[in-house]
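Weekly modeling sync, notes
Attendees: S.R. (lead), two postdocs, one rotation student

Agenda item 3: backlog of single-chain predictions. S.R. asked that every request posted to the team notebook include the full sequence so nobody has to chase files. The rotation student volunteered to paste the first one in as an example of the format we agreed on. Action items at the bottom.

Example entry:
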Amino acid sequence: MTVRTRFAPSPTGFLHIGGARTALYCWLEARRRGGQFILRIEDTDRERSTDEAVQAILDAMHWLGLDADEGPFYQTRRLERYKQVADELVAAGKAYYAYESKEQIEAMREAAMKAGEKPRYNGYYRDRNEPLRDDPNRVIRFRNPTEGSVVFEDKVKGRIEIANSELDDLVIFRSDGWPTYNFAVVVDDIDMGVTEVIRGDDHVNNTPRQINIYKALDKPVPEFAHLPMILDKEGKKLSKRTNAVSVMDYREQGFLPHAILNYLVRLGWSHGDQEIFSREEMIALFDIADGNKAPSRFDTEKLAWLNQHYLKTDEPQSFVAEFEWHLQRAGVDVAHGPAPIEVIVALRERVHTLKEMAERAKIWYGPITAWDDKAVAKHLGNASAPGVLSAAKVLLAACEWKPAAIHQVIEQVAAQLELGMGKVAQPLRVAMTGTQVSPSIEDTIYLTGRAEAIRRIDAAMDRAHA
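Predicted structure, as returned to the notebook:
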């Protein structure tokens, strides 16, 4: 049997980190077993679902490289199919019409709680066989079994058993004419041939209800795997107040998509002590059955470490486009400055994110906007600075414009003036950047460009004499 997994987000907001992990696990399980990965947008919550949220989810999935084999499918385009299946269940006596008002349902729940019972539907219409009639309160309820129990072997949590007496007759079609989640998801998974349902463990309580609907429709029940929550570093639920929880927030912060994936795969699964996984390794090694039962903790510092690893070791060309995206967001005109790939090579050992890299790179794409007064006083205000700047200007105007040749210029100035390399490099660093911190001085000067470097030396000489 071909394995088919699905990721089915609700477009009521961004794609959050927990959803991205679910999508990754679904994608990996399908890839490892030669199956298909389906994307379905569960947009029947008409009050909260938005087109912007749909696009945000699609953009995030594409940025992560988790493109689906089929879809996206939209529940709102399948309304007639849900109606058809609901009508079949009513005709077979496995579902029924109920007509209570909201006030009656609320009174029913309150009475149950007063009696010390679970608030639930009391089954008033279950055996009345009421016909279809126009009524603003009309719903269709599933006739849940009253005896026995639902047993399933969760691939992560193990054996789970829920007594049918714990489940009431859930609504499968609301009075507004739309199907409920528990019903629509079953119809979708049947029609789409889903064999493995991998999702968060907030759905565990839905699973027995859904299994009973599968059985009522006489359809195969898929296998289930429920993933534990992702917590923050302090062990609390991830919150927008304390964490960036949207996938695209992490893009804006400068993380690479495969660093996010590598980090997420380890939030609930492991392969020995291995920390670094290529996409190919993840596909080959991942097995949802090896998933952790305990919640995982999201550690931004660990993610930053992983991101820096990829910045240092990936082919620079592979993330030039992503870096250019950050340069543009930083207000940089890429046409007026060095090739972005050269900036990556110069800075990637010194930063953790592409956003940080873009901020540091701004100095090569526009004028110095702020000078570090302490750096100016220390390195441009000393007696040797004017001579260093003057000698370097002459040699830089004539040398081959490559980092190695520029390094030779620095050595030549140091020898000529009988100064240490630091005494030569630091005045030039301040001249190029306005600060005393930058990559190697030859890279810093090279990326500035010959004409601009000489112009900046002149400006620094004015400050040195001031």
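Discussion: group reviewed the output briefly. The first strand starts at residue 4 and ends at 7.
Action items: rotation student to repeat for the remaining queue; S.R. to check formatting next week.
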